[in-house]
């Protein structure tokens, strides 16, 4: 069975990694799908995000994970991949309300598409990519939120 875990991963956090590791143990194939959104100003380029993911997948010995990118609608990407399961991580109740509505829209656009929700590990439920970027922009300590590899990349971007 195959699952798609979509996101911008800008930057990749321990919360993301936790979800990817859990999916790796549950599915035969996990597609980590990086959203290309030209309207959104990303800290890292698509190539940089792919590379950070590759390093983490290798270091964590995740055997069922592949990295792909997509633009446009997630349902169209899911159809292209012949995949009927989308995984989303939930940190807060507000995440559930938002994701529930997106899941319903997606199911209307792609018959049989299911969205599963994984609760964030309580150790990581407060971590967000935007929060990491904010702390980093003030040269704060980000090691509790991201791997050493990602931390080094962020520090390069913010010159510290």
Automatic annotation (TrEMBL):
HAMAP family: PPAT_bact (MF_00151). Its main location: cytoplasm. Its EC number is 2.7.7.3. Belongs to the bacterial CoaD family. Pathway: Cofactor biosynthesis; coenzyme A biosynthesis; CoA from (R)-pantothenate: step 4/5. It is an enzyme of class 2 (transferase). It comes from the Bacteria. Residues 4-134 form the Cytidyltransferase-like domain. Substrate binds at residues 8, 40, 74, 88. It is found in: Cytoplasm. Homohexamer. InterPro entries: Cyt_trans-like, PPAT, Rossmann-like_a/b/a_fold. GO terms for cellular component: cytoplasm. ATP binds at residues 8-9, 16, 89-91, 99, 124-130. Keywords: ATP-binding, Coenzyme A biosynthesis, Cytoplasm, Magnesium, Nucleotide-binding, Nucleotidyltransferase, Transferase. Its cofactor is Mg(2+). This is Phosphopantetheine adenylyltransferase.
């Amino acid at each position: 069975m195959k699952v798609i875990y979509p996101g911008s991963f800008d930057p990749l956090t321990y919360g993301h990694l936790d979800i990817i590791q859990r999916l790796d143990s549950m599915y035969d194939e996990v597609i980590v799908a990086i959203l290309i959104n030209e309207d959104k100003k990303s800290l890292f380029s698509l190539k940089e995000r792919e590379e950070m993911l590759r390093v983490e997948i290798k270091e964590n010995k995740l055997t069922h994970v592949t990295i792909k990118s997509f633009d446009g609608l997630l349902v169209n990407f899911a159809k292209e991949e012949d995949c009927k399961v989308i995984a989303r991580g939930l940190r807060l109740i507000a995440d559930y309300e938002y994701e529930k509505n997106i899941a319903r829209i997606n199911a209307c656009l792609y018959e049989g598409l299911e969205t599963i929700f994984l609760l964030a590990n309580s150790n990581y439920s407060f971590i967000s990519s935007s929060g990491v970027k904010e702390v980093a922009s003030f040269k704060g300590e980000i090691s509790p939120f991201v791997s050493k590899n990602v931390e080094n990349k962020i520090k390069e971007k913010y010159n510290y």
